[in-house]
Amino acid sequence: GQPDLDPFGGLLLFESALVETVEQIAFFGEVTFDLTDSLSAVAGIRRYDFDQTAKDQNDGLFNGGFTSNSLSSDDSGNTYKLGLTYAPSDDTTVYGTFAQGFRLGGPHPLIPPEVCDFDGDGLIDGVGVPIPDTIASDELDSFEIGAKFVLANGRATLNVAAYQVEWEGIPVAQVADCGFELTLNAGEAESRGVEIEGQVLMSDIWSMNYGLSYVSAELTDQAPGLGESGDRLPGSPEFQMSVGLQADFDLMGRPTYLRTDVTHIGEYFNNLQEAGLEAGDYTTINLRAGIDVTEKISLSVFARNLTNEDGLTWIETELGDGRANYLRPRTIGLQLRAMLGQ
Questions:
Q1: For residue 234, which of 89, 145, 152, 320 sits 20 to 30 Å off, Cα-Cα?
Q2: Per-domain residue ranges for the chain?
Q3: Residue 193 CB partners (closer than 8 Å, separation 6+)
Q4: Would you identify the CATH topology of the domain 72-338?
Q5: Higher confidence at residue 164 or residue 314?
């Protein structure tokens, strides 16, 4: 290559190849008991067993030369589900559930010690943790209580819920000083929140749906090298809300609708330290109108992000290089749908 265009003289800068194999067997069973005419219970169990292998190879100047590794991991266990539902009438349901879940871990992508442990002390420079071989499975226990109501002779619904999620072994990604990304299981966390949603039929034409939620999600145990107890979890806006309004009517004898949706997302960060710029904290408005031209053809016009909100949905705060994802700008379009066949 030309030296002024290729200052590395054709040297390989970096390449990586990763081949993973996963074998998993799982069984699930659930039983429902009618304890009384209005009270029922449910119990479930899931058995899982998996084996995972990975072959990882890196090469190039930024990798400090050729490195390779072969790793394997396996896990097995049971998760459980329990629930009670009380329905004193067709219009009221109260429930409580306990459920467990997990997400498979696996081998960690190769991190070269020649580059990331320059002083040879066995710890990743700038992070202070050993180079990981695997990412452990993360597990959670969730508790939820709630109620569902049908109101005003069926013209309105209201659903409310409160929940607590206890999360262990959270995988959190962090970019080390050497430029490689590592994923560590960051201790324990807890999320507590409430959710409200419902619909209202305001007239024979107009209807409204709504939803709002509040959640507090933070570490409950120190994550060495990543965060402290009380740190807020990345990507977890405390407040979200949405409202939709729709009119359904006939125009020239054909079913027609007008609809608007307003959504607000609260602010959040993509790191435990809540450093750098925040994402979220934006409100979007969408409009849509449509008509069924025939039984098989429909036509609609839409405007998404009507106010052209330029909110951030994600921003890179580890490298500080300015990378970010923004909301799609105002989009106006026409959509034609046709059903083919019978």
A1: 145
A2: 72-338
A3: 162, 163, 213, 214, 215, 216, 217
A4: Maltoporin; Chain A (2.40.170)
A5: 164
